[in-house]
Amino acid sequence: MGDDGWKTQPKLMSADVKAAVVKRLIELKQEQAEPFSVVLHGGEPLMMGKARLDALLGELRQSLTPETGLHIQTNGLLLSNEMLDVLAQHRVGVSISLDGPISVHDKFRVDHQDGGSHGKVIDAVVRITAHPDAKALFSGVLAVVDPESDPVAVYTALKATGAPSIDFLYRDGNRTNLPYKKASVDSVEYGAWMSKILDLYLADEAPPVIRILDDMIRLLLGGRGIKEGIGITDYGIVVIDTDGSIQKNDTLKSTYSTADRFKSPWSVLRDRLSDVMENNEFKSYHVSQRPSSATCKSCPLLDICGGGMPAHRWSAEAEFDNPTVFCADQKLLIGRMQEWIGDHKRAIA
Predict the structure, then answer these.
(1) How many CB atoms within 10 Å of residue 158?
(2) What is the value of pTM for the model shown?
(3) 166, 210 Cβ separation under 8 angstroms
(4) Which InterPro entries does the record associate with it (predicted)?
């Protein structure tokens, strides 16, 4: 959405930065009672190559507790059998970006020559599902919603991969810059699309896990959500860039330039992560995950919706003090869930 901060970043972390990352995570493990997870993403994290990735993951796994989650989000294009062996050795969970069948996936995910990547991604999925450690390795696929696509075709294609779970993400956008193919803040293109996925999911006798739907249904039934952007659970997220600088959640890049940056620069080369998190600016950023809008605070569905991702609440006029741009979509989807729950209760009464 126009952010060009990546242009000033090195393409790869230097040896000094990687050593500092490991050092700071060891410190955090010693200073923080709550567990945390480390996610390698990008860009494309596999661009660091097998040897560099092996060395980094080896240091992280050796230095952190066995319970610390190590994960990687990849487009799958460099996910060779050799790379899978490295990831399996260090007990890393792998999520692969795949939006659906070729007509959906290749609509946006193209290379520098405008060639589609669907075939190569499917090859990667086949390799990981055939790996001896597939059950531990493969976390699932991540699909960005295209409201113009056919939900039946997308659900069928993603289920056919054998992925243990599917994560659906709404496309980035906000109240000033509307998401792709969303006509207005009051329109429900995304909610209608996800409602069709919900119907397919709940009617399927052997469905994959769809985390966003599971979380919302669990919350409706009085349980606890575990996914960022759903419910009112807080998450302490920081991003370490390739130069070692420490930033806020990088989804904020989609709102305005430098929205993801702290006013006081932080870097793993000189700062402890606990010092960052004890700073008032970080505390304000952490609190901002909870919606501030009066509309959200008075909404009976707040415990389910959670106000959505902060980046989706942005507007040029009121900044983050708005309901999510997907408010109408979420109300529609939650309403469909309530219908399903009501029907089920009547069926067993």
Answers:
(1) 25
(2) 0.94
(3) yes
(4) Aldolase_TIM, rSAM_sf, Sulphatase_maturase_rSAM
d(CA 140, CA 231): 22
Rounded CA-CA distance 169/98 in Å is: 11
Instruction: Name beta bridge partners: 287.
Output: none
Query: Residue 202 has which token pair?
Result: 């709940």
H or E element at residue 128: helix 118-130
Query: Closest by alpha carbon to 182, among 326, 296, 318, 307?
Result: 326
Q: Tell me the mean pLDDT in the region 335-344.
A: 94
**302-316 pLDDT, tens per residue?**
999 999 999 999 999
What's domain 5-345's superfamily in CATH? Aldolase class I (3.20.20.70)
Q: Among 149, 155, 141, 142, which Cα is nearest to 201's?
A: 155
Q: Which DSSP letter does residue 7 get?
A: G
- Tell me how crowded residue 147 is: count the other CB atoms within 10 A of its CB: 20
Please state the domain extents for the chain.
5-345
Model pLDDT for residues 9-20, shown as the tens digit of each residue: 898 899 999 999
Q: Name beta bridge partners: 39.
A: 71
- Picking from 263, 209, 267, 219, the residue whose alpha carbon sits closest to that of residue 242 is 267
133 is written with which tokens? Answer: 């450690």
Q: What own/partner pairs with CB < 8 Å and gap ≥ 24 does 30-38 have?
A: 31/272, 31/274, 32/274, 35/65, 35/67, 35/68, 35/69, 36/68, 36/69, 36/236, 37/68, 37/69, 37/70, 37/71, 38/64, 38/68, 38/69, 38/70, 38/71
Eight-state DSSP code of residue 67: T
